[in-house]
Amino acid sequence: MRITTNMTANNAIYNLQQNLANLSKLQELSTSQQNINTPSDNPASAGVLLDIADRLKATDQYNSNITKASTFMQTTSTALTGISDFITQAKSLVDSISSGTSDATQRQTVSDQLATLKKQIVDMANTQSADGRYIFGGTTSATPPFNTTNNTYAGDGTQVNIEVAQNSTQAMNITGDRVLKGVGSSPSYGSTDILGTLDNLITAVNANDVTAMKQGATDLEAGAQQVTNAQIDLASRMTRLDSMTKMNTNNKTTLQNIASNIQEVDLATVGVQLAQQQTAYSAALSATAKISQMSLLNYL
User: What is the CATH number of the domain that holds 233?
Assistant: First the structure.
């Protein structure tokens, strides 16, 4: 087959284009320091990187959920501690008068103190989170769940769940009906109406009813255990959140390492290849320039 001048020129141009493409790719790798800059560079690896990016975003969202829930739970823990302390004070007052007394002034003092403690418990039960939600109201968190005029619960028994990992949730709130009214299930902390018990104790103290005071003291003891059960449940939830944070952090590190292994450019190798390709491209340019100068006269 006869090799024409046109064919030689076309081959030279093709080789120049290939050398330039290789050179441009190596320069891109050197500049971006990433193996994959467009999906066409490596479709399979690009797909893996996209999946990793989605999973990293999800993990960040899980950790954000956990952070918000942890803050909410810490506020709940503080409120439960306050309620527990006030119940302890109420128990101490009742114990001081449980045998009865003919001193009307003493009875009135104890009655007034019990009423004050009840108001303080209600105040704790109406604690708001940093974003203004009433922590013991369930999903009805825009209005106070309790008031000082009666013992009704204005919230609901719904536990708010947050996603802490893929296909894994955790209830972040404890509802006031479970803690102070002794109702609800899954979980149930007890069956004592703490606010009602305090009202009964106030009535018993005013009437100097020893039997009713002793029963009230027993009920108050059960109420104290009810609050303790809620505290134990909350502590276990907070421990789980800590564990999930560590797991998510480890997963994130693993995913980042996988992505880095795919994307990380060996700059030393690329540098050597870039120098070689630049030399090859320069040589190709030189050779092409000589070929393009030839004419029919070169063969005469």
Answer: 1.20.1330.10
